[in-house]
Amino acid sequence: MDAVLDLLTLLVFAAVILAVLAARSLSSRNQRDKATVRHLEKLKGELDGQAHATTSQVSLDGILRDMQQAPFADLPVIGPRIARLWLGLSVLGWRESLLMRVALTGLLSLMGGVLLGRETPFPVLASLLLSLLFFSVLATLGYRSGLAKHLNELKQSLPEAIDAITRTARAGVPVSNAFALVAPNLAGPLAIEFALIDNWLRIGVPLRQAMQDSAQRIPLNEYRFFAVILIINQEAGGRLGETLDRLSATLRDRHELQLKIQAKTSEARASAKIVASLVPLALGYMYLNSPRDFHFLLGDPTGNSVLFYAFGSVALGLMLTHFMVRRVS
Asked: Which residues cross the membrane (predicted)?
């Protein structure tokens, strides 16, 4: 029976590896095809003089449609959260590859759940529960990692966008019209956000409401400073160009300080990653080279106590390291 389970585990592991390789190959080929299509559309748009406007409008229409067609958005409690998650997936560009991501995450979770759950007294129930737990953890970590990368790109391109808004304001262009001029000339996700703001302004939404909604979609303190400055200037007046210049300089200084902090805390963060990988690596080594000890950890009460102690001590160490890094930053 153990030999059959080992063979089944090996087959599942091989299927996951083949699925990942096939998905990566398909994804890279799709990306090349999409890049070729975008390049051809850009060349065609340049011939017509409307390349940037067309690209921004297509992306903008897609986001507006996703905001209106979020599934289960009418539910009383979890509806707003689902709508926010749906919009986040659309902004990240994961809607097209969502099924592939879910399938790969499910295969990895199933493999981990079967590997650990089959050693427990209730293998079927434990495998199912562990698979659901692994799927939730992997999906949450993947979404937060993608969102953090997206926000980091926004943070890096924000000073350039503020400089563009400053130049248009000094040229005498109203703020309500500046987004339409700046959005086609920006690169990255901030161009789509500015195009979305311009769309709301065109249909009559006040600047205050448009910037407040935009600040909710982009949970960055730096972007909220920018939104507050535009709202105050629109309602109370003032020298917008000088204020935005100071904000842009402050954001660049904050970015340099953040890079210094990352350099100072690199050793602690590397130590935390090493400590976090010790337990799964040790369990994997025991599973391959010492199956009896691995079965003891999962199937014996004393082994369960040792395993819980190891997980608890590692979690406590990671928590202390996190607090230490937060104090420095």
From this structure: 6-26, 98-116, 122-143, 270-288, 308-325
Position 44 scores a pLDDT of 52
Cα(72)–Cα(229) distance, integer angstroms: 35
Query: Block means of pLDDT (10 residues each) for the chain, length 329 residues?
Result: 51 59 55 56 51 42 51 68 75 78 87 77 81 88 86 86 88 84 82 85 86 83 88 82 87 85 80 79 80 77 82 82 71
Contact residues for 279 (Cβ-Cβ < 8 A; gap 6+): 310, 311, 314
Q: Which among 124, 127, 122, 186 has a CA at the least distance from the CA of 158?
A: 186
Identify whether the C-beta of residue 303 lies closer than 8 Å to the C-beta of residue 290.
Answer: no
Q: What domains lie within the chain, and their CATH numbers?
A: 152-252 (1.20.81), 265-329 (no CATH)
Sign of CA dihedral 103, 107, 108, 110: positive
DSSP at 303: H
Q: What is d(CA 270, CA 320) in angstroms, rounded to the nearest whole number?
A: 14
pLDDT in the model for residue 178: 86
DSSP 187: -
